[in-house]
Amino acid sequence: MKNILITGGAGFIGSNFIRYLLLDERFDGNIVNLDKLTYAGNLMSLRDVAERREGKGYEFVRGDIADYPLVADLFKKHRIDTVVHFAAESHVDRSIHGPADFVRTNIVGTFNLLDAARASWKSPEGKRFHHISTDEVFGSAEAGTAFTEASPYDPSSPYSATKASSDHLVRAYVRTYGMPATISNCSNNYGPYQHPEKLIPLMVLNASEGKELPIYGDGGNVRDWLHVLDHCSAISLILKKGRVGETYNVGGRCEKRNIEIVERICAMIEQRMPGRKCAGLIKHVTDRRGHDRRYAIDSRKIERELGWKPRRSFDQGLAETVDWYLANREWVDAVRSGEYMKWIEKNYSMR
Ligand code: NAD
Ligand code: DAU
Fold it and tell me: Does the pLDDT of residue 169 top 90, yes or no?
């Protein structure tokens, strides 16, 4: 790992991953962060990184992974030997209302990156393409089962269907062209810098502001939660020790019903904001279309082969996350406000 192209590095997991790499004193590579800065990308998530490292082993490029000439140019200019591909349209609800961007970014964008790597890498020696994927490609898990790397693909939403397509493309490039690629399929992440459209930050912010807490359906849907930094450690291990052509499932062994998460958040907010009463804010609303009932990941392969283990308990991680959102109002306001996008348009032209 010398010259790393990180796509989607201004998003939730990508920004955490860049900070994770740069905080490691043994890391001596160069990072190019290619991000389109859609509504989900936020350079404020990397302000500290940019202040310390911009121009010193870290460079940000505003651009679209679906733009082949740009991607090919970055491979050449920066002699990219490693790709860590996070960029995606990531929100299931948005994919239900408007799937086109998901097809463009998640499928065409991934294809472009693979093809640019194929054109640029004359030999697989010292190269690696790591594709970040999701447990949602497997569809809903029956009670008592958990997804393994061999589970059949059965996506339910336009989002998960596009992620499934991108996984298939990566595998096809491994088999057809010998692309030195790996894939990880991870469960639900939580932690700092997650866009407030997603369950945990949305509930923390709404509860703290006395707004309604919309629970889809009966609130009995189950997700398997993992702290984002534990996901980052898994990705880093796969880059260092993962076997080319392999897929690794990554999960927290932490299944929770949505309603349970929201009730926990309510209790934490009430504790931190005396006088605030949250229980009455919970409102069951119309269910998400095609809503998967349960996700559960079997991560024994990455544990056994690479020695990975999540380090944060959900209790500790959730409490820290709640505190982070309460303490970082400036970030929250910037993400929510249209002013931020105007500032981006003025200061960062698209390449
Ligand atoms: P996010 O929505 O927070 O960030 C996505 C980033 O990609 C944003 O910065 C956005 O600006 C950028 N982007 C979007 N379209 C682009 C394009 N065409 N060109 C360049 N950049 C573009 O997403 P996230 O939650 O950080 O997820 C990152 C990856 O991890 C995704 O591939 C997602 O499918 C996967 N994943 C997420 C989770 C989760 O719980 N969040 C779990 C498993 C896997
Ligand atoms: O499983 C991994 C996936 O986790 C990632 O691939 C996706 O990119 C990421 O967005 C996430 O998908 P989910 O759909 O599970 O996350 P979301 O936060 O949107 O919803 C979590 C659960 O909470 C889900 O069952 C829907 C429910 N929900 C969500 C919102 C936003 C509600 O009940 N109310 C809400 O307002």
Answer: yes
